Amino acid sequence: MQYSIQGGTLPAVIIKLQPGEAVISQAGGRTWVRGRVRAETTGEGGVGRALGRMFSGESLFMSRYTAQEPAEIAFSSSFPGTIIKRTLQEGESVIAQKTAFLCATPEIELELHFQKKLGVGFFGGEGFIMQRISGPGTVFLEIDGYCQEYDLAQKEELTCDTGVLALMDASCKMDIRRVKGVKNVLFGGEGLFDTVITGPGKVYLQTMTIPKLAALMTPFLPHKN
């Protein structure tokens, strides 16, 4: 399967399909098609996984697009940012924020990932529910803003603002750490907690999130008296 990612900060992944090749996305996810492609609405993985996708921020049903001839199909990001590709081997998984999934080869599996620690769910910026995406196969994911990648060694820590973590290998661990010092909490502008990711594994951070953008825009929106 050949692909290209176009569009700069408003990206789309354009995938070239040969006859019989297919990709999946959340229901109605494709942006445009060139050539004959059959679209089917499916409950990939059965009822249990369909409900899991719904709770993790995706649609209850999936769309499967199968090429009937050499064709192109495009999937665009829903927010200014970055589209990344991961090829996962059998048994390999990544943990992603809600709504990160864009499209994938049909073998990819999506399911719920629960934050087991109460504090991480409340203060980690990602909530209690994230997505576990498992191979084998290729998956395309959308990251808000610019995407910075890090490869963490065993027990190496990466500290970031809450909500900045977009994606990490399942081998990584996520926790929260309270910001030290009363002045730092009250006047430092960083909030009460930081998110701490511990390796080994690859981590993807995002420079802008929808909640952060909303907070920046709120003072400029008209208010009713």
What does this structure look like?
The protein has four helices and 19 strands. The longest helix is centred in the first third of the chain and has 10 residues, at 46-55. The model is unreliable at 118-125 and 182-189 (pLDDT under 50). The relative contact order is 0.16. By secondary structure, the protein is mainly β. The chain has a single domain, classed as Double-stranded beta-helix, CATH 3.60.160.10. A six-stranded antiparallel β-sheet has the order 5-6-3-10-13-8, with no helix packed on it. A six-stranded antiparallel β-sheet has the order 11-12-9-16-19-14, with helices on one face. Strands 1-2-7-4 form a four-stranded antiparallel β-sheet, with no helix packed on it. The chain has helices at residues 46-55, 118-123, 182-187, 210-217; strands at residues 2-6, 12-17, 22-26, 32-34, 37-42, 62-67, 71-76, 81-88, 93-96, 101-104, 109-114, 129-134, 137-144, 147-152, 157-161, 165-169, 173-178, 193-198, 201-206.
Search tags:
single chain, 225 residues, mainly beta, Double-stranded beta-helix, 6-stranded antiparallel β-sheet, 4 helices, 19 strands
Strand content bin: over 45%
- In percent, how helical is the residue content? 10-25%
| The level-1 CATH class | Alpha Beta
- End-to-end Cα distance, whole Å, is 56 Å
The average pLDDT value, as a whole number, equals 83
- CATH fold description: Double-stranded beta-helix
CATH architecture: 4-Layer Sandwich
Radius of gyration: 19 Å
- List SSEs in N-to-C order: EEEEEHEEEEEEHEEEEEEHEEH
Whole-number count of domains: 1
Number of strands: 19
CATH homologous superfamily heading:
Mitochondrial biogenesis AIM24
Spatial ordering of strands, largest sheet: 5-6-3-10-13-8
